[in-house]
Specification:
By secondary structure, the chain is an alpha+beta fold. Among the domains are: 110 residues, Ku70, Chain: A, Domain 2, CATH 2.40.290.10; 34 residues, no CATH class. Strands 1-2-6-9-8-7-5 form a 7-stranded mixed beta barrel. It has a two-stranded antiparallel ribbon with strand order 3-4.
Length: 311
């Protein structure tokens, strides 16, 4: 099946080699349930209207423009053709600047994904050469492209028969981890607790399979809409119970292991608390019969002791 309309068309360029390409968005949220704003009294859909902030008068779509606020309430008006006139090579070209190992790309910089394919028969060979050169060297390319009137840095990597492009954030867009993590205390974890936690991790080990992802909220919304459409009044949801605080982390880990394996973890044997100087009682002594039984068991022991002494 042929892909839909490309999001961007231009050229992929590596040194003196270039080929025409088409770029398509790699993800979509159109399949999700979406809602419209409506008038609750009439059930009619609402339309948002542009209002001039100062005059409070409605503004037609043709009068809508773009402006940069350089001071409070003061704007520099910018036209679309003025932005289009800014001549940079990446306006219509994905220009490869450098190649780097994939594992050097910080995951925090990854943004949106796109698919790139050659746009005509003539450029397929050049496209394949660039793709397979990256695959053979196990490298990804860093390039520049203009999307939505803004230059972006993209990571290009071979993907099946095509190339996947991922836009990257600029350094000023990525927040520094130090302001979040530096104040966290350095906690020394007991080896036995760490061993239990690792056991839980191993018991849940699996393979990455996106087909197993389930959007439970989306499914519940669809079911609720079906019920409402059929005239069934959906029940009001109960407040979600907050997880209880863990009083003893070690016990909670042991219970978690038990829940995963179906077997209760072995408990350490605890000996009875003994009072220093007190002999251990082999039989419980209760009441008169208990005293008689104790006397009868002790008598032979004394007699046996005398015989051993005499011999």
């Amino acid at each position: 099946m042929a892909p839909g309309r490309p999001y961007w068309k231009g050229y992929l360029k590596l040194a003196l080699v270039s080929c025409p390409i088409a770029l398509y968005t790699g993800t979509s949220s159109t399949e999700r349930v979406s809602f419209r704003q409506i008038n609750k009294k009439t059930g009619n859909r609402l339309r948002q209207q542009l209002i001039d902030e100062v005059t409070r008068e409605p503004v037609e779509g043709s009068d809508k423009g773009r402006g940069y606020e350089y001071d409070k309430g003061a704007y520099i008006q910018v036209e679309d053709d003025e932005l289009d006139a800014i001549a940079i090579e990446s306006n219509h070209t994905v220009d490869i600047d450098t190649f780097v190992p994939r594992d050097q790309i910080d995951e925090r910089y990854l943004d949106s994904t796109y698919y790139i394919i050659p746009d005509d028969q003539v450029g397929q060979e050049a496209f394949a050469v660039i793709r397979e050169a990256m695959r053979g060297k196990k490298m990804v390319a860093l390039a520049r492209i203009v999307l939505a009137k803004r230059e972006r840095v993209v990571m290009l990597q071979p993907w099946d028969k095509g190339v996947m492009a991922t836009t990257l954030h600029y350094p000023y867009e990525v927040r520094d981890t130090h302001e979040y993590f530096d104040d966290l205390p350095a906690i020394k974890i007991a080896p036995d607790m760490l061993k239990l936690a690792e056991h839980i991790v191993e018991s849940k080990e699996g393979e990455f399979d996106p087909s197993q992802f389930a959007d439970h909220y989306e499914e519940a919304v669809v079911e609720m809409l079906k019920e409402k459409q059929a005239g069934i009044k959906p029940p009001k949801g109960k407040p979600v119970e907050r997880p209880r605080n863990v009083v003893n982390l070690f016990d909670a880990l042991k219970r978690s292991v038990s829940a995963e394996t179906g077997k209760a973890p072995a408990r350490a044997k605890r000996g009875k608390k003994r009072i220093e100087g007190q002999r251990e009682m082999l039989l419980p002594i209760t009441g008169k019969k208990g005293k008689e039984a104790a006397a009868s068991t002790k008598a032979p022991a004394r007699s046996h002791g005398k015989q051993r002494k005499a011999g």
